[in-house]
Amino acid sequence: MSLRTADEYRAGLVDGRRLHYQGQPVPDINAVPDLRVAVDHAAIDFDLARDPGHRDLAVAVDPDTGEEYNAGYRIPRSAEDVMARSHLIEAGTAAGGTVVTLIHEIGTDGLFALLRVLEGEGREKAEAYYRHCRDGDLALAVAQTDVKGDRSKPPHQQADPDLYVRVVDRSDEGIVVRGAKCHTTSSANGDEIIVFPTRAMGPDDADYAVSFAVPANTEGLSLYVSGYGGGGHDAFDHPVSSKHKLLETLTVFDDVFVPWERVFLCQEPEKAGALALTFVEYHRFTAVSYKLPLVDAFVGAAAQIAEMNGVMKAGHIRDKLTQLVAYAETVRALTEAAALRSRIGEHGIAYPDPTTTNMAKYTFASGFYKAVEWLQDIAGGLLVTGPSGADWDSPEIRPILEKYYAGASPAPERLAMMNLISDLTARDLGGYHAVLAVHAEGSLEAEKLQMLRSYTANHAPRAIAYARKLAALD
């Protein structure tokens, strides 16, 4: 086993993978400033494991060999393990300025799902692949969301059969796949990509019921990196996003060969839905865990800017701050409750309570835009009318800015806090956070559906039995 250094991680990304960004091929991801920001951000995960202050949280020990490995790979066996995983995700995201690193988190969500759902030969292959990733301290991405085409039609009825990833050939050596996934986070700067079905499948969709893993430099695999959020490198204007960023790709499989030892599910539609939903059980918990630094930042920034503006004593400001506190602490309490209510699933692997996990995610997502409104209302219009970094660096202009932008606090402090809030809520990163709140890890409707489904299966019998007892029906 090994705990890789950040530099070893960076060097491993120069491996001949086919990257495209802003219309151009990218031979070395480390050499493009927009992309290097994301690489350095992801490297936080490797630094965290070597930080004495986080060692107990970020490093696990194999009980059989005594060897160390990244704690993101620890298979949860209890509620305590699930809670520790949440704390690790929160710590990494806090170090990343409210932006999750998502190179150990999402991949292990996928690995845990494979280890729980699969049986027989499929599970043996998943176990071997898990050890390969853990022992190499690999950075993983998960490609689940197909491009889908006409959403009213299942995969096999699409006008273009490649709008869902599918099996186009199979032999004694392996399978050949074709199609595309989108919204694939961290694939451009990951070592491996795990592919999952995006939905439940019927018998006619058997070719699309496939799960496998490939290195990012596999022949026929092309990664088209989204240009969203590029160019914000001025630390004055973009105090968070100039240093912290995720990359998303359109992930295209053009007749990619996958050897059988890396194929976990092939043309088995009856298992596709269970695998997709089990991954979501873990990944939505990851989602609410990495939202905690962001909601804390909202509360802290709101309190600070209210003081700096000199309006903390105003009743409506205190009311908005109270609402922000209630929002942030409700999301945190539900996240912790999901861990505390963890269940033990197949093969003794623990998972967070799905009802409470989806309640936490729904509470965060449905309240996000109101929280942004409260924070922006407290801060004021300087969020979008303030000076630029070039103005601030100008010897002639800066004295004027310091004179006229002072409030209850000096202008440098007040503008720094304004720019933090603007970066988080009004600029590219703010837009990214807003879309993630609604769509990432599942939509609001998906969360409501899963809340009801999980409650009906796991909690409703208790409530129904009590109501029937009170009504003297039993």
Widest sheet, order of strands = 2-1-10-11-7-6
User: Termini separation (Å)?
Assistant: 58 Å
Shape-level CATH architecture of the largest domain: Beta Barrel
Report the structural category. Answer: alpha+beta
Largest beta-sheet details = 6 strands, mixed
Overall average residue pLDDT = 96
Uncertain segments are: none
Structural Rg? 24 Å
Let me know the CATH homologous superfamily of the largest domain: Butyryl-CoA Dehydrogenase, subunit A, domain 2
- Figure out the total of helices: 17
The tally of beta strands, per DSSP, is 14
Q: Strand share of the residues?
A: 5-15%
CATH class division of the largest domain: Mainly Beta
Q: What percent of residues adopt helix (DSSP H or I)?
A: 40-55%
Work out the count of structural domains: 2
CATH topology label of the largest domain? Butyryl-CoA Dehydrogenase, subunit A, domain 2
How does this structure look, described?
The strands form 4 sheets. Strands 2-1-10-11-7-6 form a 6-stranded mixed sheet, with no helix packed on it. It has helices at residues 6-12, 33-42, 44-49, 55-58, 79-95, 105-117, 120-136, 269-309, 315-340, 354-379, 382-385, 389-393, 398-404, 411-425, 428-439, 444-458, 460-470, and strands at 18-21, 24-26, 59-61, 68-70, 140-143, 166-170, 174-185, 192-195, 210-215, 221-225, 248-259, 263-266, 343-344, 350-351. Helix content is 50%, strand content 15%. The N and C termini lie far apart (58 Å). The protein folds into 2 domains: 6-269, Butyryl-CoA Dehydrogenase, subunit A, domain 2, CATH 2.40.110.10; 272-465, Butyryl-CoA Dehydrogenase, subunit A, domain 3, CATH 1.20.140.10. The longest helix has 41 residues, at 269-309. It contains 17 helices and 14 strands. The chain has 474 residues and is of the alpha+beta class.
